[in-house]
Every structure is written in C-alpha cells, then in structure tokens.
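Shipment paperwork, digital attachment
Item: protein structure file
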Amino acid sequence: MARGRMIMNRAIALGWTWLAAIVVSSSGADLAQTRTVFLNGNYDKTITQCEEALKSDTGEEDWPLLLTESLMALGRYSNAQAVITRAIEQFPFSLRTKLLAREVSLYNGDGTKAREYLEEMAGLANRRQWAYRDAQSLVALGKAALLMGVDPKKVLENTFDRAKKADPDLRDAHAASVQVALDKSDFDLAAKLATEALKKFPKDPDFHYARAQALAGSDRKAMLESLSSALEINENHVPSYLLIADHMIDAEEYEEAESKISRALEVNPHHPLAWAYRAVMAHLRNELAQEADHRKKALAHYAKNPAVDYLIGRKLSQKYRFSEGAAYQRRALAFDPEFTSAKSQLAQDLLRLGEDQEGWTLAEQVHQEDGYDVVAYNLANLKDTMNRFATLTNQFFTVRMGASEAPIYGDRVLALLTRAHTNLSLKYGIELQTPTFVEIFPDQKDFAVRTFGMPGGAGYLGVCFGRVITANSPATQAGRAASWESVLWHEFAHVVTLQMTKNKMPRWLSEGISVYEEQQSNPAWGQAMTPRYREMILGDDLVKIGELSGAFLAPPSGEHLMFAYYQSSLVVRYLVENFGFESLLKILRDLKLGVPINDAIARHTTALDKLETNFAAFARKLATELAPGLEWEKPEAEDLVSKDGEPAEWLRKNPKNYYALLHSARADLKNKQWKKAQEPLRQLIELFPIQTEPGNAYQLLAQAHRALKETAEEKEVLTAWSKIDAHAADAYLRLMELAEKDRNWSVVFDNVRRYLAVNPLSHQAYAYWGRAAEATLQPAIAVQAYQTLLRLDPPDPAGTHFRLAKLFHDQGSVAAKRHLLQALEEAPRFREAHELLLKLNASSANPPPAKP
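Attachment content:
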C-alpha cells in the first residue's frame, strides 16, 4: 500500500499534465435511460435492463458497473461480486471496474482482495498513463489516490477539477468533488459544489442529499427540504432516510427515527449504517444486548468497516455520551488505524472529556496527516492560541481564559463558580469527583472551534459537555450584553445534572433545569414571561414536552429558540411546584440508571399524556394572568396610524391596551413630548411590573425623566429596573453617575457589582469603584480598582496613575513615585503631580529621624 501511495503521489504531483479534453462516451441512449431508472430508485428494473443489455454483449463496461451498483444498493453483495468478477475478466485494465470491485470485495468479507485491487490500480496508473486520458478514468484515479492517503487538496485540484474541466457534464466528477469536501468537513464548499451540480443535474437525488449533508450543521430546515427533494425523485434513497433518522435522533423523536431506519432496511436489509443507527437507539434505550446485536448485523458483510463504529460513536457523542463515543472511535481505529474521521472525532471527544493532552496530540496528528481536514486544522490553530491563555485553579475548577482578561475578572470567575459548586452540589446531592474545566474565549470564533469544531454557533454564550464548560468572554458580546455570571451559573448547573445522570438526559430537561436554577439563584437572571411569550403560549407555539428537545434543533427563528429555553424551564418549575423537588431528583437518578425519560416521569409524577395536558393548562394560566389589568388584543398596523395629527381611533378606544400604551409613549418620546409620555409608561409599570426586554417601560420612562432633568424620579425608575433585570448595564452605569454626585457610595458599590457581572471589561465601572473606595476610606480596594482600570486603556491614564501615587504615598510605598512618573509621562504639565513629586523628593532627601 505504501508503494501504491508513492506512485499515486507522484502521478498527482505531475498534475496529470497529459490530460487532454477528451470525452469518451460509451453510453448510448438506452444506457442513459437505464441510469435514470437507477437514480429514480427502481433498482429491480435497472437490474433487469442491465442483464438484458449484457446478454446482447455490447462490450460496454458501463452495463456491468451499473448492474453491480444496483445489486449493492439492494444489499445483494454476493450477486454483485459475481457480476464485477466477470467484468474484471472482460475489462482487466479498467480503473473504474477495479475501483468498484474493491468496494464489492469489502462487502463480501475479502479485505485482502480489496487491497490487491487498489495496488493494481496504482500499478496501472504507473505503467499505462497513456491509456487513462479520459475524464472518467481520471476520477477513478483520484478516488484511488484518496484511499491511499494522498493529500485531498491535491486530488481535488489535480484530478476532479481537471476532470470537470475536460467534461463539464461528467456526473461522477462533480459527485467526487462534493464528497471530498464533505469528508473533510468543508461544508461551505460542499454546499456550493452541490448547488452548482444541481444546476446540471436537478433530478439527481445524490446531489440533493449531498446538499442536505452540507447544511445539516447550519440550516436544518434547508437540510430537510433538500432531503424531501431527494425522496421525491427516488423514494428508495437510503442515505436520505438515514439522514432524516439522524435528525430525528437528535430531536429525540425516536419512533419517527425508527420508521425511517425501517424504510431504509426495506430497500437494503443489510445496510451497515442503518443497523448502526439501530445500535445507537438501542444504546440510548439502555438495551445493551440489542445494541451489540445491531452492531453485529452492521458488520455482518464487511467485518472491519470502520464507518460503523465511527457513526455509532459520533451519534453517542452528539448525545453527550463522550466516554462511550470515544470507545467506539477506538474500535473504528482498531479496524483501520488510518481512518481519519474516527481520529478527528476521537480528538474532539477527548477534549470534551477534559483529557486534553491526548486530545490535542491526536488533533495535531490528524492535521499533520491530512492538511485538508477542516476540524483538525481549526483545532491545531486554536491550540496555539490557547497556549497563551492564563490558568487559574482551586480545588474544584481549572479556569483558562485570555491572558489579558484573567487579571481583570478571573478572581470573580473563580468566586462565582465556587459559589455555584457549593450551592448546586449540595442541592442535588452529588459530590463531583474531578475538577471542572472552564474555558473562556475572548474571540467568538475560537469559542466556536473549541465547541463545535469550526466557526459558527453565533448566539451561544456557553456550552457544557459534562466536565468541560466553554464560554464566550463578555468581550464577544455585541448589543445588549448578557450577564456572564448567569451564563456560568447556567452552565455549571449542566455540570451537576449531566454528571448526576451520566449524560443520560433529554436536552429539554437539561436546559430547563439550568434556566430554572438561574432564577432560583437570582430572580433577575434567567427568563421572565414577556408579551411575546404570552402570545406564543396562547397561540400555537407551545411545544409538547415529548417534542421539546426538537425545538432546539431547527427553530423558525432565534426568538423560537429562546422560547424553547423558557418553556423548558416552565416544565421544570411545574414539576417542582406540583410534585416536589425530590421528585425531580428521583427522575434524574432514574435517568442515570438508563430508565427512559417518559417512564422516569411517570414513576415520580404522572403519565406523560396527563402531564402534557396539565402543563399546557399551567402555562396558559401563567400567560393569561400576566398583567391582568392590561388588555392584550394585538392591533393591526393600520390601527395605529394617526390621522390629522389626532391619535388613531383604535388607540382612543383601547386606553388600557398594552400595545396602545407602548405605542403612544414611543410616539410621544419620538416627538420629545417627554411629560406626555410619562403617563402611559407609569401605567405600564404599575400594571406590568416585571419588564426586562429591550425598550421596556422602565427604560423609556427613565429617558423621559432624564430629558426633563427630573433626577429624583429618574433614579427611582432606574433603581426599580436594576432590581429586576440582571442585564441592564446602561441603568447601572447611570445610577453610578447619579449616586456619585449625591456621594451615595453604597449605591455606587451596588451598581459597580451589577455592572461588572455584565461587563467586567469596561473602564467606567472601575473608575467609579475606585473613587467610591477612596471616599469610604478603603485604600486597598481603591488600589485594586485603579490597577484594573489601567489594564483597560482608560481615557485618563495620567489621572489614574496620580490617584494610585497618592494612595501608595499615604501607605509609604515606593510604588508611589513610579506611578507619579508615569502620570507625568502621560501629562508632562500635570501640576498636582509635580507638587506631589516635590514632596516625595523632599521626603527622600530628608528622611524622618530613626526612632531610638
């Protein structure tokens, strides 16, 4: 094999410069029609037509190849071997025939013969270059080169791309290019290539399926649309059924997944990946004997097929069963140590298990062996970045974060996590046996690579794998920032529940508990009922509990995704309030033992169908009781249009309508009618006191008071808002400003704490903190605040250095002079600094007499 790889490398390196734009077409009209029958999924008819063509002895190799493909599609592997063996005898120099013969040999348990065919192809490529000038042979050579480990990028550029140039209508060249991109996780390129191919081959189910594969991780709605198109063309398209089953397993819709797997097995009763998916589902049901039996059937014809264990392991890892997933990847590599996909997945599993040394080593190995593997390339680059991270530790946590950020708020991170560890471990009755790893990324792309293997994942603030938490730094947040403290609390709640259940819990329950625990720790964290959530609950957006995990996978919008989190937390709240917290703990303990979620719920609460009904009533009651003093009919856009400068009639007729009041207030603010805007806003706050969404009544009323310089009223509104919203950074900052003017230092301290829980990387809060500490005679705290402030490139570095110089001077520290000189370096004419410098110099020239 090594010699064959060397030959293929040499051929690829030459760039096949001898390729001429020769298109050899051996297929007549009948063959083209039969190929269409095959693509439409009528495999039996294809077999019949191919056999009739072979009886006429046309001498065309395409007929036995198509016959073999049809037999393979139906799982008739021994029949396929008989056909391809005769074809090899008839076409001994055909690369295409030998390539297909290799695959057939594998599925007939003859790995030795499969290797021989590959070596024969390498030999033919070396001895008979002149014979393989057609595009089809070039594609076959490229595929063989990939199997021998030649650089995929070279193969893509120097064989498949050249073949497409020579014959733009050659389907196999387009299919091979797409497959390389998919195999190497280059999904953007794969989607582009598949879309381009569909322009030429719109009725080809394989290209619709390939496009679906490329979109599976980024746009599941589009993925399902592409699969629907594939199955409209070919109702027997096994790969499409299996990809739908894959999606349904992710959504925890196991009955639907089983129906798709069964449909695939109707076509090919021996399909290895169909049986692999059944093994996955058996594992998730804790049916270990069936899992082993399904795996055995998956390997019945191709006993050392690494794709089987790779698939089982990948799906288990997607269910957060990383230990089990890693074990399956090791099985796959035992079959084929060069199976790159398993190596790459194993590297990711190990990193998610906190086994960093082996994980990073393996990722680097994959990158060295295959420079085109996108995930391995991304991880290798990320490792270089993370080598520059700072590390903070205590007995419970190892925190890694940007070296410039760690000195600023790293101690706050450790303190928050330690508090979460103490509270939640005790509450859930679990003693974590190993430290938790927490990684905080100043760059969102780095977070995405560490978390998902590649850039993307916008909108995720943090992810927990069980023992490892990855999180975005507050520096990555744009717009209205979220509290990083609530994010870490949420993720550590996952650590507790995932380890408590050995990662055997549905996503909705895991997310629901984490949001619930946010609110239990701090009512201003988590999510509150909003007018939009009210509308969704009373409309058609409330999801059945049994389907709730699927709501996280392909939501119609970001709003629906956030609603899935909110609804999940409501389910947990309902369970706790109606059956007690101990019932929730019992459900989690059952899940650890492998009890299915529906059975665990029924054991400790009530049957799922009854729970569905009762929960829906509970949620609707909460929605209808939201601000009962307000009317909630939603107006049409035209109802809000004013005429002749007078308020719209609908607004006049609905004076207590939420939307009417908010619309009127916003219109008044827009027209700078500050006083007029205050009345509807006060009504909204009085009748609907918990408002935290952007543009809420508190925010708008504070704006009106500020415009009128009604400072006392503004403070009152901002104070009320700050107590219910953990993300209102602008309110906290304004309260600091107003409190400093009043010398109300306790209010300054309170809002500094709140602000730093949202944005610890902004200089303003540290300046207020330092001045408040000075005013309250807390020099150590003032020094800490100002030293942190200097790390954040403040607008007045000279002033900050001067304040530190005075504080250190009062303490008799030699650091005073250093900061004073730095202040003068920034502002050479800083008079107060010059005066203090003279004092310092005088003190050093005339030290106080020594005590006797």
